[in-house]
Amino acid sequence: MSKRKRTPRTARSRINAPRPTGTAARSGVKNTHNAGSAQGLWLYGLHAVCAALQNPNRKKHRLITTKPAAENLQEALPEGFSMAIDPEIVDRSEIDTVCGPDSVHQGLALLVSPLPDLYIEDVIDPDIQENPQATDTLVVLDQATDPRNIGAVLRSARAFGVRAVILQDRNAPPETGAMAKAASGALEHVAMIRVTNLARAMWTLKDAGYWCLGLDGYAEHDIGAVDPTSKRVVVLGAEGTGLRRLTRETCDQLVCIPMDRSAESLNLSNAAAIALYVVTRKR
C-alpha cells in the first residue's frame, strides 16, 4: 500500500463525454482527439446507433440504413421516440463504403460529431463527495491502445455502473466507429476522459477521496479479499506490459485476480469485467 502524498494540482484535463447536469460550460476548448474527419465520424451497428440517437449531447448529421435495418431500429427505440433525423434508405454497399467492408454494421450507420469535451474535475460529483453513503466507481487505463478493447471495457463499465473511463491522451485511439460498436452503446453513457499525465490525474481523484486499486498479476493481495472504499478507481495496465512504474506507485493498493499461473494473462477487457464485478458487488 502506498503512502499518500499531496501533489500540486495539475492543469485541467479534457473529458470526452456529455456534461453532467449543472456543470458550467467552458469555452475555448478545441476537440483534437476524435475528429476522424472535418465532417465527423460514422457510428454503426444497432446498439451504437440506437444509443447515439437517444443521446441529446450527440450531434447527428445523417442516418443511412437498409430497409430491413430501419425496421429493426424502429423496434429497438422506445415507443413514441422521435429520432429528429430522417433515415435515408440505401443499398448495403453504400454503408460498406462509409464504414468499411469488414465492419459489422447491421445495415445501419449514423454520421455524428464527436462528443463535447469536459474536464476530469467535472466527473467529481459534489453530491457524491458530500454523501458518505454514496458509492462511485471509475476506471483508469494505462497505455491502452486498441479501440475495440477500449470499447469492450466501456461496455463492462456501463454494465457495472462506472461513470468514467480515464486514459492517457498520448497513443490512445480517438473515438471511432469500431470503438462504439465494441462498446455496444456504452460510449454514449460512460465518460471517456483523456489526460496528459495519468499519475497527476489519479492524484486529482485521490485528493477528492477516491481509493486507487491497481491490478498487478504479481500483487500479494487478492482483489476478492479487499474491502474497497465507497469511492474507488480500478487501474488497469496494457496487455503484456501491465502498469507502468509511476502509475503503479501512484496506486493506493495493488491487487491481483487469482488465476492459474501456467495460463496466459487475461486480456484487458476480461480483466476489467472481473475486477469491476468483484469491486462493485461490495457496496
| CATH homologous superfamily label of the largest domain | SPOUT methyltransferase, trefoil knot domain
| Number of distinct beta strands | 13
Biggest sheet details = 9 strands, mixed
For the record, the count of structural domains works out to: 2
Q: How much beta, percentage-wise?
A: 15-25%
How far is the first residue's CA from the last residue's CA? 22 Å
Task: Please write the string of helix (H) and strand (E) elements.
Answer: EEHEHEHEEHEHEHEHEEEHEH
Number of helices: 9
Q: Determine the fraction of residues in helical runs and give it as a percent range.
A: 25-40%
Low-confidence stretches are 7-38
| Secondary structural class | alpha/beta
**Average pLDDT:** 83
Write out the strand line-up for the largest beta sheet, numbering strands in chain order. Answer: 6-1-9-8-7-12-10-13-11
Radius of gyration (Å): 20 Å
Architecture overview:
By secondary structure, this protein is of the alpha/beta class. 29% of the residues lie in helices and 21% in strands. It contains nine helices and 13 strands. Helix 5 (147-159) packs parallel to helix 6 (177-183) and helix 5 (147-159) runs parallel beside helix 9. The longest helix is centred in the middle third of the chain and has 13 residues, at 147-159. Mean pLDDT is 83; it is low at 7-38.
